[in-house]
Amino acid sequence: MTYETAIAALADPTRRCIVERLRGGPLPVSALADGLPVSRPAVSQHLRVLSGAGLLQVTPHGTRRYYGLAPGGVDELRAWLDAMWDDALAAFAAEARLEARRREKERPR
Amino acid sequence: MTYETAIAALADPTRRCIVERLRGGPLPVSALADGLPVSRPAVSQHLRVLSGAGLLQVTPHGTRRYYGLAPGGVDELRAWLDAMWDDALAAFAAEARLEARRREKERPR
DNA sequence: CATGATCGTAAGTCATCGCTTACCGTAGGA
DNA sequence: TCCTACGGTAAGCGATGACTTACGATCATG
Q1: Which of A6, B1, B2, B95 gets the most CB atoms within 10 Å of its CB?
Q2: Is residue B107's pLDDT more than 50?
Q3: B53: domain range?
Q4: What does the mean pLDDT of chain B come to?
Q5: Minimum-distance CB partner of A98 among B4, B25, B77
Q6: Is A53 in CB contact (< 8 Å) with chain B?
Q7: Number of domains making up chain A
Q8: What pLDDT is recorded for position A86?
Q9: Residues A52 and A100 in one domain
Q10: Cβ B69 vs Cβ B23: under 8 Å
Q11: What is the pTM of this model?
C-alpha cells in the first residue's frame, strides 16, 4: 500500500536528485534548491510528495525546516521487490519444467 | 543508469499488476490481457517498457511470446536503494552530532 | 494455399504531472 | 515594532504518458 506511493515518488528524476543530496544529512529547503535546476516552490512540492510517501522526515528549527531521509522509508518497497523477484527463481524453475513438458510433447512426434 | 528506467517502469500500477501476474511463471500476451482492465495493445506497450527496462525476458514459442520476470532485473535498483538508505543511518549519526553541536552552542548562553 | 489466431505498431485523444509566477503566513534580528 | 529571510500554497500552463481503435506481419492449421 505504501510502497506504491514510494515508488511513484522515486520515479521522478528531480526527486531522486533530492534524495541523493540528502545522503550526507538533513538540509533546509533553500540549501536543497541551490544546485537544483528548478525553482524553490518546485522543491517544496517535491518535498511534500517525498514526505507523503514516508521517505523523508522534517525537523523544523527556527524558520527553516530540515528535511532528511526517513530511516526504514523504503522497507516496504524492498519487501515488495523481494517478494516479486525471489519468487522469480521459482518461476524460472516452473518455466524449466514447462519447457521440459513441451519437449516431452514434441519428442513423440 | 538502468535503475532509473526500472523504477520508471515499476511506477505504473498496470505494469506492477503485470509483474505480479508473472510471479507464477511466464505467460503469453493474451493470457496477461485477460483479467487486466486494459486492452491487449496496451498490454503490449507495457511489456515493451518492462522489457526495455530489463525487468522482463521474452521466449517466443510459435506465434505466442512468453513473458517472464528477468532474474536479477531489479539488482541495480536494490543497490541504489541500499546506497541511499544505508548511508541514511550515517546521516542520522551526522544529524545527531549536529544536534549535539547545536546544544553545545546553546548551553553556554 | 488459404484461413484464423497471436501479437506488435501507428495515430489520435485525454488525463496526469511537473514547473513557473504570484501570494501569504511565520519566525528572528535590527 | 518593522523588516527581512524562509518556506508552504494556489492557479495556470505545457509536456509527458497511458489508453483506444485500426492496421499489418507472422506462424500454425485446415
Answers
A1: A6
A2: no
A3: 2-69
A4: 86
A5: B25
A6: no
A7: 2
A8: 84
A9: no
A10: yes
A11: 0.86
